């Protein structure tokens, strides 16, 4: 997949059981299901990122569409319906996608306060068989990384318009802070403290991740300096409070008060890539984060220091961000006397 998978922690079972369930949804299209999930109490909703709830709505809508022609109920569903759905889609969907569909179905049943069919012994049995036969067939897709040389190319055409200042701040701060697109979107003006020669940015992560403070030092180049990029954007936009990154009117001539969403962050990366002749299909909002991790790893920065900046909680998730299309000077095979 192109983005890092979310890493939410589940609520304790006792706490979850004490919260009232939602009534069953009246419609099963993705938009209606996203609004249904939005009715959750803040405690349960904050346990997962906004993008995760959106993905669950899309996944559950797909399952409901498959159920409709045969009159099967998507919620509550039976174990037989789940196993039939899995075997019917194993040739057309990846194991990773089916795993997420199962998660969406299980979560939806929990939200509605009904037993999940995924807990029936037949479903894990079929799932293990499908994984054994089909699991290795399709490797996960990864997006390209924006390292410093690509970042320089992206920001080179930017000038003195409000839109250009916003996009430069987004690209430079997103790279230097190794921020997820949801974290960039969630930034408020109050989260960015300007100190001598650096920015101190409070990153309020989605889901159950704790907030962290990342330091963005003054850059050697004006065009990729986080401090100067932020100051120029904050001055041009006359930011005082509220969202740090905001939407603009069509054409970017003036600001709108609404927060730039996480999809908007990805669109900025793709639009700026297209403008300088890079392939927008190979890049996403995650490319800035992957580029930072790759560049820092290539420079020999210890993994613990990189993880302190990125907020990664596991070595495996951190390693998944590294793109190895160029040789690493610290490759251990070069130091064992071959």
Brief overview, please?
The chain is built from 15 helices and 5 strands. The chain has 338 residues and is mainly alpha-helical.
Largest sheet: 3 strands, antiparallel
The percent range for helix content is 40-55%
- Give the strand line-up of the largest sheet: 1-2-3
By oligomeric state, this entry counts as single chain
- Low-confidence spans: 1-17
The secondary-structure element order is: HHHHHHHHHHEEEHEEHHHH
What value does the Rg take, in angstroms?
22 Å
Q: According to CATH, what is the topology of the largest domain?
A: hpI Integrase, Chain A
General form: elongated
CATH H-level name of the largest domain... which superfamily?
Intergrase catalytic core
Care to describe what's here?
- The chain is mainly alpha-helical and about 350 residues long.
- It folds into 2 domains: about 15-135, DNA polymerase, domain 1 (Orthogonal Bundle); about 150-320, hpI Integrase, Chain A (Orthogonal Bundle), CATH 1.10.443.10.
- It contains 15 helices and 5 strands.
- The chain has helices spanning about 15-20, 30-40, 40-45, 50-65, 80-90, 95-110, 120-135, 150-155, 160-175, 180-185, 225-235, 260-275, 285-300, 305-310, 315-320, and strands spanning about 190-195, 200-205, 210-215, 245-250, 255-260.
- A hairpin with a 2-residue loop joins strand 1 and strand 2.
- The longest helix has 18 residues, at about 50-65.
- The protein is elongated and about 60 Å long.
- The two termini are about 35 Å apart.
- Residues about 1-15 have low confidence and may be disordered.
- Pfam families: Phage_integrase.
């Amino acid at each position: 997949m192109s983005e890092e998978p979310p890493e939410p922690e589940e609520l304790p079972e006792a706490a979850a059981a004490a919260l009232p369930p939602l009534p069953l949804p009246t419609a099963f299209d993705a938009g209606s299901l996203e609004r249904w999930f939005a009715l959750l109490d803040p405690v349960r909703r904050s346990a997962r990122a906004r993008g995760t709830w959106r993905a669950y709505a899309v996944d559950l809508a797909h399952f409901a569409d498959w159920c409709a022609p045969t009159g099967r109920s998507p919620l509550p569903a039976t174990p037989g319906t789940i196993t039939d759905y899995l075997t019917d889609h194993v040739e057309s969907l990846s194991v990773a996608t089916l795993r997420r569909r199962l998660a969406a179905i299980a979560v939806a049943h929990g939200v509605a306060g009904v037993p999940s069919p995924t807990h029936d012994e037949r479903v894990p049995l079929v799932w293990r068989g499908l994984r054994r036969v089909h699991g290795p067939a399709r490797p996960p897709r990864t997006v390209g990384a924006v390292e410093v040389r690509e970042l320089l190319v992206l920001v080179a055409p930017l000038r003195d318009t409000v839109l250009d200042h916003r996009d430069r701040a987004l690209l430079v701060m997103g790279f230097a802070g190794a921020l997820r697109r949801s974290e960039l979107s969630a930034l408020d003006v109050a989260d960015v403290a300007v100190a001598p020669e650096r920015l101190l940015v409070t990153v309020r992560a989605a889901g159950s991740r704790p907030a962290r403070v990342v330091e963005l030092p003054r850059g050697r180049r004006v065009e990729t300096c986080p401090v100067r990029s932020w100051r120029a954007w904050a001055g041009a936009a006359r930011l005082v409070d509220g969202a740090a990154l905001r939407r603009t009117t069509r054409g970017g001539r003036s600001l709108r008060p609404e927060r730039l969403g996480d999809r908007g962050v990805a669109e900025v990366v793709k639009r700026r890539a297209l403008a300088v002749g890079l392939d927008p299909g190979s890049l996403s909002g995650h490319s800035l984060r992957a580029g930072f991790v790759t560049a820092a790893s290539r420079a020999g920065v210890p993994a613990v220091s990189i993880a302190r900046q990125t907020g990664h909680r596991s070595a495996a998730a951190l390693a998944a961000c590294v793109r190895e299309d160029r040789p690493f000077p610290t490759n251990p095979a070069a130091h064992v006397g071959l």
